[in-house]
Amino acid sequence: MATYYPNIDPTYLFKRQGTANDPFIPLVQNITVKTQKVTLKEIPSYIDKVKVSFSNGFPLTEITGSPISDGQYRVDYSTGMVHFNSAEDDKELKFEYSGTGHVNIGANRILLNTSATNNEEVSVQEIIDDQIELYAKAQESKELIENNQAVSKSEIDATNEKLSQQIDEVSTARGVEDTLANRLDKFDFEVSANTDNIGNRDGLPPWLDKSLYEIAKMQNDTMLQYGVNVKMPPYNAKCDGITDDTEAIRAAIKDAEEKGLNLIIPGVSVITGELEFKKPLVVSGVGTGAGYGDESLLNYNQISGFLVKGTGQRRIRTRRKFRATAMDSQDNPLSVALNVQSDNVVFRDFTVFLDFDKTDMSARNYGADWDVGIFVGCRTHFLQENINVLGYFREAGWYYDVTHATNLPRFNALDGTTYDNTNNVSGGDGCTMIKCFARGAKWGVFVAGAIKNDSNTNYYDELLQKTVSDYRGSFGFSDFTTISCSFYGTDHHSGYRRDSASGNYLTDTSGGVMFIDGAAANGSSTVQGMRFISTRFASYEPFRVRLDRCNRPIFIGCHVENRSSGGRRNPDGSLVDFNSDSQIYGLITATTKTNNVLVQGISGKINMAFIPSSISYHNYSPAGDSDGTRTTDILRASRFQSLSGDLELRSNLSTDGIRFRRGPDTVLYVTDYFNIYSHILPGGDGTIDIGNSNRRMRRIYSNEIVFKSPDGTKNFKLSVDNNGNIVTNQV
């Protein structure tokens, strides 16, 4: 039965009348169920009822009896308490109701007789305040002393032991020995005496003429301004390039995310497991190190970041393949070193290096078994500054996933929970890379979107276990920007390619520097709007920049090169022929699904064999490209004007003409002749001469010539009859 008793009025400190002048107020609360119940902020209106729903909006059913089943709830309208089945424990539910007021009995009004031998009364509020203040002070003293490096280890150890005992006493003080008030007073005195004695020991320098607590707190507060340092307690990462710091780094990341602090990596931490970044966070090293050129991986000197060892855990993280049914294969599972699963994450000044045996010069020595250095799980505004991803990752140095959708769940984290989908529910816009360096991976940068099926607009999702509308990648990957970066392909230290070129760039599965391919819900149906500024793309591998489903990529002042020095070999040992279009696929490749490629000031010659003639491709002011006739298709502008001197229009060769079109129709074509495809009219009547007395036309070929009289009233036709005589007739 319902637990509402209309004749019993609970005690209110604040109660509304429910009238027009003093109405009940609508309230919405999100509360997590604990021990099968929640307590609402206010007493709910029985007439308006309490509506409860899951996080997905699905409503629960209110009942008035018992027992309570899964998906049901019962409301006590006298106390504001809502009861549930145990199945709802730890679930966050939404509560909507009308608030009639609230009960507010102060803790200072509840009195306890704390001793059977006297009449001393203590309020609950006094007990709570003393407990919180003293316990926090003791705990803070312990933590700060641990972090203080200004005193000897022996002093810290002794103090820690003393404080630990006192903290334990506080936690068990209730009802033991003396009254609670006396015990807490005694504890407060002991802590104060202890910290004062340590801080005032003889022989310490003048700047230590304070209590240890004050000194440690000052030092710790200063350090916290810079963020969570993974080397400091309680994380104690070694950052020595030898010790496995995986668990220490994970703990530090969790703390930094919860406290809203930066994460500092002051050295090289070995990791053997994946690191997840699930909230906005700034991660900073102290520099990337040094190394560049063909032997950069062999001789690289890393000074901060992560040295990736062992074998990474492979999990399915993407939805790139099209799946019509559960029988269709899923994407291949990937192992990733750093997994970005939040918007607005920032990485600065460190290197991710995949460990390998630098003494082994064999062609298949790729080192530790990991697929991806930095994986970005369809997240927006990921900023990287001075980040290096080096080593022979099997798939990509950077992998930008663009396959999520608004109607699909996020994948699960390592702990089994689902990655957050609160703010950005689909896209990957606004990712930026500044002064980043990639070398060794199959692809330096891989932007991987969904592969669609033109004849089927539905997609089977493994997590949902059902078919839904195929919105994968719809949000897109706009505004991806690289500035002053250096991206390379595998370029293995042995001199061997990772894979041989197949000869067909459209179907080849070999790697290179950068690969962009993805669908999106826009006019072009592709990812679009990416900008690459002063960025180097170079590799001995078959590809440099590979574009498939991609619209409006812009390359400004970039350097793209085949790196065609001799001696490079295919996996079978044969030499790579860098002059063969079947073994080296030029600087940029595109497909018929690519469009609006703009290149300006690129320092290399674009091979148009890899740019379909059907797409819009523009190369403005090429640097080092003498083949000017094939660098752009149509230059669109409202007018052209010379800044000084003549305006020159020039064809490439003396045998080539200059063609003027009006729409699709040619109106003038200049070769050895001035070919006119329309009428010639002067700008005004009787205002234009053809030739002059000094520069006469040699011959005029015409069927007939018509003259108009000076007064404009008569026309005379000059023609030649069949006998060759000139005949004049008025017309």
Automatic annotation (TrEMBL):
The protein's matches in InterPro entries, at most eight in alphabetical order, are given as: Pectin_lyas_fold, Pectin_lyase_fold/virulence
Q: Which domain of life is it from?
A: Bacteria
The name this protein goes by in its record: Uncharacterized protein
